[in-house]
Amino acid sequence: MSSRRPDRTGLVAPAVAVLLIAVLLGSLVGTWPPFVAVESGSMAPGVERGDLVVVTDTDRAPWGDLSTAADPDAPTRLGEAGDVVVYTVPGAGGRPVFHRLAFPVDAGEDWTDRADPELLAGDCDELATCPAAYDGYVTYGDANELYDQSAGIAPVVPDEWIAGKALFAVPDLGWIRVGIDAAAARYGGVATGVVLVGGAGLAGGVGALLVGRLRRGRRR
Fold first, then answer.
1. Is the peptide bond prior to 158 cis by the omega test (within 30 degrees of 0)?
2. Binning pLDDT at 50, 70 and 90, where does residue 196 land?
3. N or C end: fewer C-beta atoms under 10 angstroms in the chain?
4. Within its chain, how far is the Cα of 86 from the centroid?
5. Is cis: bond before 131, omega within 30 of 0?
6. For residues 124 and 107, what is the distance between their CA atoms, to the nearest angstrom?
7. Whether the Cβ atoms of residue 30 and residue 60 lie closer than 8 Å to each other
8. In 10 A of CB 27, how many CB atoms?
9. What digits encode the pLDDT tens for the residues 98-157?
10. In what side-by-side order are the strands of the sheet with 136-140?
11. 87: helix, coil or strand?
């Protein structure tokens, strides 16, 4: 007496497909992960909270090197001129910052001389980030009232702190990533991963079952 073994390929196919897409995208843009989920409104209206942004390496062809808002030929990125980058301040213990490059600065420079006065909370003598301690960039959020270096968000940002630059945003798709990060923080990465894979497998199994029934119905 023989029994037909169930075909379980439909259970894992969706999870495998998502993984393959992510790997291919990472290979194309040169960063991992190849996207970030926006968790604040500091880059509105070009990028809203909950959007998913695809990022590339800072010198990845064909997108070229970093451009700031002050560059005369700066490309438009997410609504305004200049590249929007993801950077992390070492030792600060915070999450990565997703803001625009305003202009480059040299070590020892009083960068407030070239800054927009409306985005400053004081002159160079009043700011801990001025003069610049090293070469880097002044940065800002499009919706913020001050430069990051004037608001105390970050010192001047050197190249080595920048993980990638933005290419384009997909509205609202980032809420999935935000939810995953929140679950991982609360329940742990392993438990969250098991739930995600199981959920993808269940969705794939249900989908395969429905497709199979539709096919059998057409054959009758």
1. no
2. very low
3. N
4. 7
5. yes
6. 14
7. yes
8. 11
9. 999 999 999 999 999 999 999 999 999 999 999 999 999 999 999 999 999 999 999 999
10. 35-37, 52-56, 162-170, 84-87, 97-105, 136-140
11. strand
User: Are 132 and 138 a contacting pair, CB within 8 Å?
Assistant: no
Q: What is the mean pLDDT of residues 77-97?
A: 91
- Residue 153 is encoded by which pair of tokens? 């968000």
Q: 31 near 164, Cβ under 8 Å?
A: yes
Residue with tokens 């968790």: 39
3-state secondary structure at position 115: coil
Q: Are 67 and 75 in contact (CB under 8 A)?
A: yes
Asked whether 102 and 69 are in contact (CB, 8 A), the reply is yes
What is the helix (H) or strand (E) element at residue 52, kind and residue range?
strand 52-56
Take residue 120 and report the two structure tokens written for it: 């400053």
- Rounded Cα–Cα distance for residues 35 and 37 (Å): 7
Domains annotated for the chain, with CATH where assigned, are: 32-171 (2.10.109.10), 173-211 (no CATH)
Find, among 177, 164, 147, 190, the residue nearest to 77 by Cα.
164
